[in-house]
Amino acid sequence: MTTINIHKIVGQIALGDQKAFHDLYLLYKDKVYNTALGYLQNVEDAEEILQDVFLTIYEKAHTFKGDAKVSTWIYRITVNKSLNQIDKRQRRPTANNEVQEYHKINFEHPGILLENQENAKLLFSAIDTLIENQKTAFILSYVEGLPQQEVSDIMETSLKSVESLLQRAKTNLKKKLISYYPEGKV
Amino acid sequence: MKEMKNKEQWANEVLQSLEGIQRAEPSADLFAKISQKLPKEKVIKMIPLKHLKWVAAAACVLIVINIFVFKSSIQTEQPNDYNYKVENNLLTNYSIYD
Predict the structure, then answer these.
(1) Helix, coil or strand: residue A152
(2) Residue of B18, B29, B35, B37 to mutate for A, most A C-beta atoms under 10 A
(3) Does ipTM surpass 0.85 in this model?
(4) A93 and A12 in one domain?
(5) pLDDT string in tens for chain A (186-residue length)
(6) Domain ends where: A89, A107, A125?
(7) How far apart are CA B11 and CA B5, in angstroms?
(8) I need a labelling partner for A56 at 20 to 30 A (CA). Which of A32, A145, B30, B37 fits?
């Protein structure tokens, strides 16, 4: 689908067109869901974010400025909502947090190849310890597989900043992973 | 030393575990849930054309007033030739009884 067509769809949503809204949902649901899953590492929470993002798209379609790509706008909403959800989660009572922590350590991303599942569990646990902007750069680049230019557009920063954020994220992840190294492993 | 090398190698392997990752799909019934939460009638915030006309007219009046004030201020700033000469003579000729 061309950029003009997608912009047209958003324009129709702004006028309350539900069919256009369904079309946009089909185009972006997986992207939104996977991004949210990368941050929250929990299927229920990611589905909640997915619903929330599309409700926001429906309500705010009239505010969309045509100078940005629709995908950039949608990713930005998703990233903000996911980060807000993480903030809310951290403010919840301790008992709830313990349950969340347990799920996070044992989080199995449904899209990971079977032979990589065990390693990916550790990697997602390490990703969760990164600071916000490093986490965003890493998830958008390596979980979502977006080109660095699009990541910089979403994060509203320069390409160089994204490169440096990714470099620092990898260094920090490596340090964290080394601390997870299983004792007695040869 | 060797242990550190092993740890680093293992960490690199773990870092590559995202290779070949596929996109996961959300539950099929999610769109129905979203649709239920949509407002029955979308409130479209639009400025009526009638209001825009008034805004445009007000802007025109302001522009005209500004041009008028600007022009008149330029005219008052420029000294006319006669006044300028008299002023100059007064300043240069101090022999008041001539």
Answers:
(1) helix
(2) B18
(3) no
(4) yes
(5) 677 688 999 999 999 999 999 999 999 999 999 999 999 999 999 999 999 999 999 999 999 988 889 999 999 999 999 999 999 988 876 655 555 555 456 788 988 888 888 999 999 999 999 999 999 999 999 999 999 999 999 999 999 999 999 999 999 999 999 998 887 665
(6) A107
(7) 10
(8) A145
